[in-house]
Amino acid sequence: MNKFMVWRALARGVILEAIRRKDLWVVAILGFIIVCSAGALGFFGMSGLESFAKDLATTVLGGFSTILAIVTTGRLLPEETRNRTLYPLVARPISRFDLLFGKLLGGIAVSWLSFLMLCLMTGAALAMFGVRFELIMLQYVLLKMLGLVVVCSVTLMLSTVMTPSAAITMSFVILFGSAMLSRGLLMAYSTASPSVAPFFQIVNASLPQVSLFDIGGRAANANWGLVPLWVVATLAIYMACYSAAMLAISWAKFRRQAL
Amino acid sequence: MLRYLPLSVFALAVASGFMTTTVEREVHTKVIDSGINIHETHASASLLGQFRTSISSWLWLRTDLYLHNGVEMRPLTDQEVDQGRQAATSADDFLREGLTVIPGAERDFRGVFGDIERSTHAYKNMEGHTHNSPLRAMPLYRLMTWIEPTFEEGWRTGGAVLGMGADAGRADQAIAFLTEGLTANPQSLMILNQLGFTWAVRKRDFPRAIVYFERARSTAKQAKNLSEPDKESLLDVYRWLTLLYRETDQPDKQAAIAAEGLKVFPGDVVLMGKAAGIHEDHGHETHGHQQRP
Amino acid sequence: MTPAIEIRDLHVAYRRKDGQAVEAVRGLNLQIHPGEVVGFLGPNGAGKSSTLKALMGFVQPKSGECLVFGEPSWTESSRRRIGYLPEVAMYYPHLTPLETLTLYGELQGLRGASLRREATELLRLVGLTASLKTLNRQLSKGMLQRVGIAQSLLGNPDLLILDEVTSGLDPLGRQELRTIIQDKQEQGTTVFFSSHELAEVEMLCDRIIVIHQGQLVEERLVSRLKDGLRKFTLTYRGDLIGVRALTDATNGVTTASFDSKEGLVAALNQASNDNVEIIDVVTQEGSLADYFIETIREAA
Fold first, then answer.
1. Is residue A259 in some structural domain?
2. What's this model's pTM, rounded to 2 decimal places?
3. What are the chain B neighbours of A180 within 8 Å (beta carbons)?
4. Predicted-complex ipTM score
5. Is chain C in touch with chain A: ≥3 Cβ pairs within 8 A?
6. Phi first, then psi: what are they for B72, rounded to 5°?
7. Which chain B residues have a beta carbon less than 8 Å from that of A221?
């Protein structure tokens, strides 16, 4: 059987449920808040404030899209189990890996959809104030979408090893705190002996480096131009590897899990 | 007749609504001059106050970041101090010392992750540092003072930024901005000082400037404790007053103010110079806000 | 012939929340042959659902194996031949029955217009034509059970495993279900189902399997069971010498009870020879419920 069709069917189910459940209304409300905030900002004059407007927009976009991705993906599997919608699914001729992967794809698709909707609304708000479009904004969107894949895969992994609320909380801590922790490690490393460098490297490498996917600041502050192609390629490879690792952990836990 | 009843009821409700505005003045006597007082009375207001303070503080920090084109600096660690590294005081120092939140490749254990961050967040690196025009941040000063009207530093810096340069129109805007700040903070030495400075230097209207400096002086006299920024402002006030009284040919007042200033700030060489009638220009930029007399 | 279902020495254990291990199924062996309709009975907690879950691969057995048409039941090729109705199943609340069936059909490997046609047909079969595009959350419990039955029939499976199939169905629904299962049996589909509705079991099944405390306690053909449960009573006036039956005589009228048809026939022949007046002959069909209760009591 064509695995791609199976994954597509599962992902489509997630998207359809999210749309019907009016999850995307949350996005619309958040978008409305962004536009209103931008309106309030415009009241104080936008001349010379393009950097701030772009910075604010990317900060808000980054925060909201990550929250939506965590909340959407974090409840995918636990809700299936709690609502007992899982049984008819796993009774089908599909492997548990297919189920996980299909669900992950659905979570990613919903996160991307929400993010793109927010981008459109934020873009409209920025355009209202005459902020002109730059190519780096497109690169920001692309890299952020790659980053959301990491967010979704980490959250899905956590949801297979702990309760849904714990998984969502842990995801918030890990994904929002990883940049801070990374920064802390850098500071600590500057005072540590070089012999412990491998320890720092392992701790750092095990953290999801989602902040690296956020070039909002670079897009906001003028005269920085596009991120080099090798960076985009490396990040894409990192996203694929890290997400695959998260999926593998999820599968190892889920494949033998009693339902 | 009955079909007009809803309309009549609505009209009655609106009319009684108008009445309440008249009564309200009597019921709630106005005690709130600025946002600060409400903090002490209601928990919700206090919470709102904290929120406003946090937002305006965040804006203040962001503004600083924009003025430096996004470069995020960091202080020296204890170990770096032990190694004898000097604390940076200028952008050039920061560049030389590499004191940004993202270390250089030679000090970064993260390998390719570090390389990527130096690329994606290149703006945080000192190499891209420039000083942006403070005028670009003016709407932010306006926003932060609108959110938190008791944020004196915001009013003072905003006023200073607006008043920069020789454009008389901008000086008027600065005075209007600072006057608005003074309405919200009538006891603010910082704002009074800045207003006096703007009248003196940008508008060359010494008598008007003296009015504000004198008001600052009398406010300081009534205050029990002065904060460090207030003390700095007061020192400026004494210095400016001695200078302005000299410029307006009021030597007696000049001497009296200098003497009074020296009591409060003993050993201040500028005041001693003014007291001796020697004009010394010690002007230097203090964070680009105000030129000291 | 390869059995449709073969369970060999199945042990299923759970760990309770307090950490204690509980063995829900203990060395279960059973075989279901292609084309059979088998009822799987047992009191609450007997291990029926655990057995079905192990059979479907939802839980990992401690030991033993479950085969479907000779292949391990958890393989994808086995599952393709199974239609499964869970004990308590909910279906995505924000999808319609048609979308639900389309989703499951796609997972089953069905595609396009033929899938849509089949889904629509199955929903018509279970009486949901009017609710094709109603959201599942707006359906009643019985209607959701019908959605469940329809989804289990997707892809025309060779084996139907139905857990508590009649749950939530009204009498009309049960009647429709009986028709569906009978049709499926005629088409050669094997049906293995658990139910507490013994009357349904009796009407539908070729065979019953009873388990108690995780072990097989009874396995019988329903036709034989019915014969065994049937009782005959003969009421007559006079004496019948040599009649081996429980008798109860009042005012010269005797009522004799027979466990087998042969005993009754012998008594009737005797009565004819002895010119004994026969007042009444009654055939009493035995109750599966009584039999079930008795079997469980004996096992306990």
1. no
2. 0.76
3. none
4. 0.82
5. yes
6. -110, 115
7. 66, 69-70, 123, 128
